[in-house]
């Protein structure tokens, strides 16, 4: 009898413990209901690319080879369509999403939770942060509220709302797994200190909001690590603190200007930390300082270890681009570094990251289909400051690349410097126009350009 009573009490204790644990879980229904109307579904169409509709493999195998040529020409071509998510940040129709959701799109359509659909205008995009600002003309709009991503802590609950795989307005929840993740983009640039979460994020969630339990947006869902194409519990969001600055600049001038030092850096390992007089491995070790750059003018030297910039601690070398990039060009900020075992304090006037600020003009108001000539590339003279920074004497600066045109297919990007077309050197705008006019059609031709000071060869073909 005593044994049975003990077992009964144990069951009651376990049930009580489970109930207490359940009570400790966050209640999300009100948060989701309140914020879902401000989350939108985004569909885009890129007519410069086409996808071929294929017959099923089994059906193809049943067709004899002698008849296969009769079927192939009938395959239909259709524009490439993609989808993503976004969220309304103001009642007058401004919407935030990822740059990769709308990149190259000819048409962007936004669907609200009440099924209203609108064609959206792209106000501005920023490839480096993977953010884009859209605008729709609509009334009676709900808008989200920004939160402070700087106050997020590992283990804190967060909620994502979006359209994974095109499923409208789905919600998922999880915790913050890590802060300040450094994930370089395709250009090996690293200007976003990502928030890592275990929230289930899938294709279609891109550009959607990440909420804290106060119902405020603390991040924009942007990337996942996956082997299957779906969520495996590793997702990354752009911090709201960075996004707000980017969005404000896109709204104001259609582009984003970032701070720049002009140094090459690496991590500090244990042996280097001991040699430098650091208590533990931390900071960014300066390996190279380019002449004439803000770092050189401030007195920063190779061998210095930057441990604080603008009052913010530099834990690992990847932290430095995050901090510098958020400083407006022309701002004077303090730098604290270790030099020969001693702490030094300097002042540096932050420069403008090449390819931004006045060195990167706004796109022309002309329709893209009539811009860029045979290459589909809009160019301008290289500013003197950029020549000095990248040690480039001649060439032309790529200001805009028209999607689907030869320049885009060759891999050119805004900010590249074209130095050779075909077998002819390009020294300035006049030279460029002459060379382009003489290029043969339908032939693969070499093209040489500089990207971030590095010379690159590709091929380009101008179709007749």
TrEMBL record:
Keyword match Lipid metabolism: no
CDD domains the UniProt entry points to: cpPDZ1_DegP-like
Reaction(s) catalysed (UniProt annotation): Acts on substrates that are at least partially unfolded. The cleavage site P1 residue is normally between a pair of hydrophobic residues, such as Val-|-Val
Protein name: Probable periplasmic serine endoprotease DegP-like
PANTHER family: PERIPLASMIC SERINE ENDOPROTEASE DEGP-LIKE-RELATED, SERINE PROTEASE FAMILY S1C HTRA-RELATED
Residues spanning the signal sequence: 1-22
Cited SUPFAM superfamilies: PDZ domain-like (SSF50156), Trypsin-like serine proteases (SSF50494)
Function per UniProt: Might be efficient in the degradation of transiently denatured and unfolded proteins which accumulate in the periplasm following stress conditions.
InterPro entries in the record: PDZ, PDZ_sf, Pept_S1C_Do, Peptidase_S1_PA, Peptidase_S1C
Pfam hit, one: PDZ
Keywords: Hydrolase, Periplasm, Protease, Repeat, Serine protease, Signal, Stress response
EC number: 3.4.21.107
Subcellular location: Periplasm
Gene3D superfamilies assigned: 2.30.42.10, 2.40.10.120
GO-annotated molecular function: hydrolase activity
Membership in a protein family: Belongs to the peptidase S1C family.
Enzyme class: hydrolase
């Amino acid at each position: 009898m005593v044994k049975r009573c003990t077992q009964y009490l144990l069951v009651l204790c376990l049930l009580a413990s489970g109930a207490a644990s359940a009570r400790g879980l966050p209640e999300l229904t009100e948060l989701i209901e309140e914020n879902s109307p401000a989350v939108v579904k985004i569909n885009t169409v890129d007519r410069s690319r086409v996808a071929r509709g294929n017959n099923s493999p089994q059906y193809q195998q049943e067709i004899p080879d002698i008849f296969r040529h009769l079927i192939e020409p009938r395959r239909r071509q259709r524009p490439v369509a993609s989808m993503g998510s976004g969220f309304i940040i103001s009642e007058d129709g401004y919407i935030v999403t990822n740059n990769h959701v709308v990149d190259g799109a000819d048409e962007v359509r936004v669907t609200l939770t009440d099924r209203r659909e609108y064609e959206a205008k792209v106000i501005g995009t920023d490839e480096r942060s993977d953010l884009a600002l859209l605008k729709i003309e609509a009334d009676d709009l709900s808008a989200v509220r920004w939160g402070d991503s700087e106050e997020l802590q590992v283990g804190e609950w967060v909620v994502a709302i979006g359209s994974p795989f095109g499923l409208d307005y789905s919600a998922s929840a999880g915790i913050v797994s890590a802060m300040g993740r450094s994930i370089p983009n395709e250009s090996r640039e690293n200007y976003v200190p990502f928030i890592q979460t275990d929230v289930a994020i899938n294709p279609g969630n891109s550009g959607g909001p990440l909420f804290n339990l106060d119902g405020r947006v603390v991040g924009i869902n942007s990337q996942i690590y996956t082997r299957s194409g779906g969520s495996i519990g590793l997702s990354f969001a752009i911090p709201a603190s960075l996004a707000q600055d980017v969005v404000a600049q896109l709204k104001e001038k259609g582009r984003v200007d970032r701070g720049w030092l002009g140094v090459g850096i690496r991590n500090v390992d244990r042996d280097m930390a001991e040699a430098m007089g650091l208590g533990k491995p931390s900071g960014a070790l300066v390996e190279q300082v380019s002449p004439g750059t803000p770092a050189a003018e401030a007195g920063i030297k190779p061998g210095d270890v930057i441990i604080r910039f603008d009052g913010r601690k530099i834990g690992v070398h990847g932290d430095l681009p995050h901090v510098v990039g958020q400083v407006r060009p022309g701002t004077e900020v303090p730098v604290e570094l270790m030099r020969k075992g001693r702490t030094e304090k300097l002042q540096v006037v932050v420069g403008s990251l090449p390819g931004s600020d006045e060195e990167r003009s706004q796109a022309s108001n002309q329709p893209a289909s009539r811009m860029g000539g045979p290459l589909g590339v809009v160019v301008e003279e290289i500013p003197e400051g950029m020549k000095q920074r990248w040690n480039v004497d001649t060439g032309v600066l790529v200001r805009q690349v028209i999607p689907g045109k030869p320049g885009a297919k060759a891999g050119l990007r805004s900010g590249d410097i074209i130095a050779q077309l075909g077998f002819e050197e390009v020294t300035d705008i006049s030279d460029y126009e002459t060379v382009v006019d003489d290029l043969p059609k339908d032939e693969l031709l070499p093209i040489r350009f500089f990207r971030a000071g590095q010379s690159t060869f590709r091929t380009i073909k101008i179709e007749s």
